[in-house]
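Database export, one record per block. Field names are fixed; values are copied verbatim from the stored entry.
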Amino acid sequence: MTLSALFENWRREAQEPFAGWNFSHLAGRMIEDQPPWDYMARAAALMDQAESVLDIDTGGGEKLLELREHWPNQVIVTEGYPPNITLAQQQLGPLGVLVVPMESTDFTLMPFRDQVFDLVLNRHGAFHAAECFRILKPGGTLLTKQVHGLWAQDLLAVFGATSQWPDSTPTKYTNYLQAAGFELVDVQDWQGGLRFMDVGAIVYYLKAVPWLVPGFTVEQYSAQLAGLQARLDAGESLTFEARTYLIEARKPA
């Protein structure tokens, strides 16, 4: 395929729709090594013991829906990205889930009473440790899976970008959690590979996650994309550094 034809394909990739946190378009084209721990399995086990759960930054509710058979009596979610709020309301609302529009940060106050949840889940979202402590019942659990602040730094470097949240590390959040009064149950930091089978998959990924390379367009970064294609044509694997971490913390009973 000529470079001109490749660029046309990449432009089409940039126009492909993306909703919620659904990367099914990249099935078989973006391959991420898996950590030794399983966030979803742990979340399911904790849900089975809970009567009420809050899922912070649920996206479109995709991952929560995968846990449907484990839902307790009360399920509430928050989401701050307007397109995802609408999607979450459409997908979760009919199932009796309250969707609370709220942008989460490390210091966002949450609109919930004290000690109302048995479990707080957070997958890839910011959270206020002291607020999570406040809204959890005694003995309640916070389970979070986070993207490390240095996620795919080598991919970002190709485009001259750097992480916007380099301090998003296990140490940062465990310090916040312990200061809030939590007991740490499990902390795991993992590093592996994120492999793209074609350059178009990278284009789609960077458009779907716009904060990685702000302002990314095929036209603006044509030289970098052509360089990646040359690496692929030379037999090089387009594999970059993936880093995530898991924290489970408990409020003393």
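Remark 1: The domain at 3-17+27-250 is CATH 3.40.50.150 (Rossmann fold).
Remark 2: The chain has one domain: 3-17+27-250.
End of record.
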